Amino acid sequence: MSGTSDGAGAVTATPAAGTPIPVEEPAHGLGVSLPSADAPAKAEGTFPYAADLWAEGLLWAAVLRSPHPRARILSIDTKHAVEMPGVRVVVTHEDVPGDAGHGRGTADRPVFAKDEVRHHGEPIAAVAADHPDTARLAAAAIDVEYEIQDAVTDPQLAFEAEPLHPDGNLIRHIPLRFGDPDVVGEVMVEGLYRIGRQDPAPIGAEAGLAVPRPDGGVEIYTASTDPHTDRDLAAASFGLEPDQVKVVVTGVPGATADREDPGIQLPLGLLALRTGCPVKLAATREESFLAHAHRHPTLLRYRHHADAEGKLVKVEAQILMDAGAYADTSADALAAAVSFSCGPYVVPHAVVDGWAVRTNNPPSGHVRGEGALQVCAAYEGQMDKLAARLGLEPDEIRLRNVMATGDLLPTGQTVTCPAPVAELLDAVKEAPLPELPKDAPEAEWLLPGGPEGAGEPGAVRRGVGYALGMVHMLGAEGTDEVSTATVKVSGSVATVICAAVETGSGFSTLARQIVQETLGVDEVHIAGVDTDQPPAGAACHGRHTWVSGGAVERAAKMVRTQLLQPLAHKFGMSTELLQINDGKITSYDGVLSTTVAEALDGKELWATAQCRPHPTEPLDESGQGDAFVGLAFCAIRCVADVDIELGTIRVVEMTVAQDVGRVLNPRQLRARIEAGVTQGLGAALMENLRTTRGQVRHPDLTGYALPTALDAPDIRIVKLVEERDVIAPFGAKPASAVPVVTSPAAVASAVRAATGRPIGRLPIRPQAAVAQVVQQ
Predict the structure, then answer these.
(1) How far, in whole angstroms, is CA 688 from its chain's centroid?
(2) Can you tell me the distance from the alpha carbon of 597 to that of 584, in angstroms, rounded to the nearest whole number?
(3) The pLDDT of residue 492
(4) Phi, psi of 80 (to 5 degrees)
(5) Which of 280, 414, 623, 746 is 20 to 30 A away from residue 80, measured at CA?
(6) What is the rounded distance in angstroms from the CA atom of residue 568 to the CA atom of residue 594?
(7) Closest CA to 689 of 347, 393, 319, 289
(8) Residue 240 and residue 181: Cα distance in Å, rounded?
């Protein structure tokens, strides 16, 4: 028999002749497609989201936001709002008892604007009233006198503009220097690239409930993805000790970024403390667009040098990231962009400068693949240009330069983790191409623009493009990554207590699988998350698979030792000679055979453990340093049909090969990859939160286009490389960020191939996809 894979980790055994026979999977444990425990509730509409919360004596909140991207505040008159029937309290900057500023990276963002507003939608005041309509009307009745200022919306002008913030306009500059900066290649190509402002567009808009406590503290119920950081920010703003503020995580309706903007939570808690009543706020979709962070719009200038054979010699780049009004996580995003500016390629010399600057545009922050997505679109565009200049195929120029384990990043860090980039590229290159649509009426829906599109089949050109992407795992530059978990076993039930938030990444399912495999207990409950538990950190960069999953595994193994030690002592053997399978404990020689429940004998066993990966270091003044714990890679081939007269684009197929370390849940992994590819498709073709002089245009799901099921292409996962990372628990790597990073570059590459146009802007505009017509 031979073993084959379906591309999602499920293995079939194939006889010498005949059809594949599925291998029967175990009922639980790692490597099994265990379904999510909350899937039925979400499908049935009974899952408890923050917008569904209720409390006795509930008041409703509304936030007044700035209609201007930049203005001085001359006065704030709340008199008319306070006098409205049903209004309990109105709060402004004067009512913030603690720190006036907050922020995930730098505390540079006010709870409420004081002397000036710096972006469209910035909070000015908040109202608590007995009805949501009353609260909204009262917020609208607050009279704010503005002196409108000229907004600085071009990040290139931020260097010379007057300071928009007391901390200045420059958030961070990273000058990376690697090798000899004076080296030149025989062939040189240049490019200018612009990446738009992608919104995380959560399924549910932000919402929360704040409940005052008898001890003078407050509890905040919200869909936080980093509850301990949110607690600390809130406590500092409220002038309270951290233990006086409790954040309880409700159901998270999906998260591809920092799910909750503190501009929602902080007014909520402040209103609850002022009124002594529970206060609820459910943001409108417009408020959601204005309040939370978006992907950094980025301007990139590149120059690639190569020899006559296509081997890279040097990369020069300038990367300018628009942080919007406040710093947030822009310094971290810039570090990723600069560090990965050359891509998963061997580059002996690099000169890269990166800047993150403040403007009066909407705030930017953490969105899946931040920094890495922007540079991937640029360096892959450069590889296409280099291939065209040298007369090579796009896949061949990439194959001649791919990185492998042991190579150096331009930061000087050695790639010690598995880096099977060539293997990934070969897998997508060798996969069969999709068939061309037949010239038949029933196939008209296959044309770009759909069945009602105005295009003609004769104007459609098919393009095939390639892209290679990379992301880092966990935090970077000295971030102290740590998570704590407790595992308890009583009878035939195990409980996991860990403050790792389930955002759709599948951590809750993974935690169940870990305990099932380690302890042989089928029924595993995952406790709700709140800040009374030890911190587990933010739900990003694959942290919870690695750090929190590692903590759960260690705690489960400690409980396993407690369970097996008395038995091992009784039979005069070590615990290593005992194994647990399907709830049964057996010895290597078959002498001992009992159940987990019998071994427990009514006792409750528990253990608490931490997981902390090896430390990293900040980049130095030359952009050098071991800044990352590990890396993950992806290759995507895109096949796209383009109407070269109208500029309409239909992505036919995305072929994916990914470096995953180890498949822990095949079905869940496939879903994560498909979702990541689709999110990247949105960044490539349609998603761009447009602004006019800093004013957000159409902040709703009508004006902001998202990919639907009709836009999603066929996504073929042709290879998952399971080369385990020895320093990672289970050897697994994060799954969803790297396809998000890679797919926009692959789409742009396919459109270049179809049209011959350079395609330097994402999302791709129709006029950019119209092929040049040469007059004969």
Answers:
(1) 17
(2) 9
(3) 80
(4) -65, -35
(5) 280
(6) 12
(7) 289
(8) 52
Count Cβ atoms within 10 A of the Cβ of residue 356 and give its class: 0-12 exposed, 13-18 middle, 19 or more buried. buried
Predicted confidence at residue 774, as pLDDT, reads: 36
Phi, psi for residue 678 in degrees, rounded to 5: -65, -40
Q: Encoding tokens for residue 88?
A: 């309990």
Is the peptide bond prior to 48 cis by the omega test (within 30 degrees of 0)? no
Query: Beta strands 493-498 and 523-526: pairing type?
Result: parallel
Give 148's strand partners: 71
Q: Is 757 helix (H, G, I), strand (E, B) or coil?
A: coil
Q: What amino acid is encoded at 586 in this protein?
A: T
Closest CA relative to residue 634, chosen from 420, 333, 378: 420
Dihedral angle computed from the Cα positions of residues 518, 524, 528 and 531, in that order, rounded to the nearest 10 degrees: -20
Q: For residue 165, give both structure tokens.
A: 């913030």
Q: Is 516 helix (H, G, I), strand (E, B) or coil?
A: helix
Query: Residue 252 is encoded by which pair of tokens?
Result: 């998270």
Instruction: Report the C-alpha gap between 222 and 218 in whole angstroms.
Output: 13
Query: By the 8 A CB rule, do 371 and 333 touch?
Result: yes
Specify the length of the chain in residues: 776
* Dist CA 88 CA 172 (whole Å): 43
232-263: per-residue pLDDT in tens? 999 999 999 999 999 999 888 777 665 656 77
Question: DSSP secondary structure string, 65-84?
Answer: E-SSSSEEEEEEE-HHHHTS
> CA-to-CA distance for 660 and 722, rounded, in angstroms?
6
pLDDT in tens, 465-484: 999 999 998 888 888 888 99
Query: How many whole angstroms separate alpha carbon 34 and alpha carbon 9?
Result: 13
Dihedral-angle region of residue 398 (phi above 0 means left; psi in -120 to 50 means alpha; beta otherwise): alpha
Encoded tokens for 42: 């979400």
Q: C-alpha distances in angstroms, 170 versus 152, 161, 356, 527?
A: 13, 11, 6, 43
What is the rounded CA–CA span in Å between residue 230 and residue 536? Answer: 13
- Residue identified by tokens 């453990």 is 609
Of 514, 523, 520, 517, residue with least CA distance to 494: 523
Q: Which residues contact 160 (CB under 8 A, 6 or more apart)?
A: none
Rounded-to-5 percentages of helix, strand, coil across the chain: 30, 30, 45
Minimal CA–CA distance to 735: which of 689, 653, 675? 675
In contact, 549 and 569? CB cutoff 8 Å: no
Span 371-428, pLDDT tens digits? 999 999 999 999 999 999 999 999 999 999 999 999 999 999 999 999 999 999 999 9
Listed residue (259, 659, 304, 611) closest to 472, CA to CA: 659
User: Looking at the whole model, is its pTM more than 0.85?
Assistant: yes
Terminal-to-terminal C-alpha distance of the chain: 61
Could you give the CA distance from residue 715 to residue 676 in angstroms, rounded to a whole number? 11
What are the start-end ranges of the E strands in 660-713?
A: 691-692, 695-696
Asked if 295 contacts 322 with a C-beta cutoff of 8 angstroms, the reply is: no
- What's the pLDDT band for 601 if we cut at 50, 70, 90? confident
Give residue 8's identity as a one-letter amino acid code.
Answer: A
